[in-house]
Every structure is written in C-alpha cells, then in structure tokens.
Amino acid sequence: MLAKPRQPEADVAAQVLAEAAALNELYGHLSPVEIIERSASDHFAGEIAAVSSFGADSAVLLHMIAEVDRGLPVIFLDTGKHFGETLDYRDALAADFGLTDIRVIRPDEVALASIDPSGDLHQSDTEACCGVRKVEPMARGVEPFRAWFTGRKRFQAETRAALPVFEQVGPRFRINPLARWTTSDLADYMRKHALRENPLVAYGYLSIGCFPCTQPVKPGEDARSGRWAGQAKTECGIHLSGLEQSLTDASL
User: Which of 32, 128, 162, 220 could disulfide-link 177, Cβ–Cβ 3.0 to 4.6 Å?
Assistant: First the structure.
C-alpha cells in the first residue's frame, strides 16, 4: 500500500492558524482555568504540555494546571545560567502542587562546546547565547507535543500587548491562558491561594531569566525592563519566529 502523502508544511501551518483563530473565538473570553480544562481535556488531550520558567509569577499558572491535571508535563528549560533561587523555587513549587512530570531540558553539550566553550557568550552576543541555550533546547522540549501552555500576559511588555490566548507556532499551538490578566489579578490569586513567591521578587526582579542578563526593575518600568537592560532586545526568542523555524526544521 502506498504511504499517504504528507501535507505540505505551509498547508499545516495555515490550518493551525485558522484553528487557533476559531479557538480564540470560542474560548478566548473564558477564565484561565476553563481554558486549561478545555485545552487539556478536550482539544489536545494527551498531546499538551506546559512551559514554565518558574519565575516571578509562575506559581499562578502552575497552580491552575495542578487543579486540572497534576500529571500534565511541565517543561523547564535549564540554561545553565539560572539563579540558584530559581532552581530551588522549581523544586518547592513542584512539591507544593504535587506536579509529577517536570521535564528538564538542557542545551546540547556539543553545541555549547562549539559556540560557547568559555560560558561567556552572553557578553558579546546575547542573540547567539539565547539561541543555543534557549531556542534550540525549547524546540526539542515541545516537539513531542501538539500544544503547550505559557504564562505570558499582555501587560508584561509592548511586544505582548496584542497577545492572543491561542496562537499558531509552525504546526503547533501555543496557549496563553493568562493573556488578559493584570498584575492585580495575579496578586489577588496569589493571596487567595497562599502561593509561594519566587524569593527574587522581593529584591525587585519582576521578570526572571538567566542571572547574567537579568536585573531588578526600576519603579515605573514594565515588568520585563530588567531583561537585557540597555539593549533593544526584549525577548529571548522562544516566543518568536526562531522557535517556529526550529520546530519546522527537518532535523526534528
């Protein structure tokens, strides 16, 4: 029997884009927990994960996920440059919520040895550093899944002001249940459920990434202004087209 021809990647991406738009119409107005339930139980059952940095307000999304399914895979990208507090926080939240499937993804050792052998690439080329430590590993992490949750919100930066709840990334779906939430919504939820806070928040770190490229946020600045401060760079790349290119690469 002849194998069924593969659908062209462009056609698959277009189909996913249309379906994401339809899902936004159907569920984009629902509460975050309802969005998580509909996605994990109905549309993407067994084919969905969550991506978490275990950063400043990661507890909110992870708590909601645990309320729906404690066994849902949670992908954590260990860049090798995290604050020690972030790694401790990851373990503490996993225990608090009873999360049973934390998947730690790391940069490719061969690639690191070639591109960043001394570990200081961030000083000369932040894009290349993020590429090898974040974008490529994250593409590997989400590749087995059809969709994944993120904790991104519209208020975090101008680049996220129009963030949809459901969006297309190559042949997959990225889902942002908290897109419409504000800082007040997050704070209220944290208090209501007595959630553990990343200890770095107390020192002014409102968006937490790798320690060489993260600093406290100054009063009046947006939450992500402490990332790559003094540079035009505002995203590491895992939420941009670089990830889409990696996800559609024939090597995956």
Answer: 32
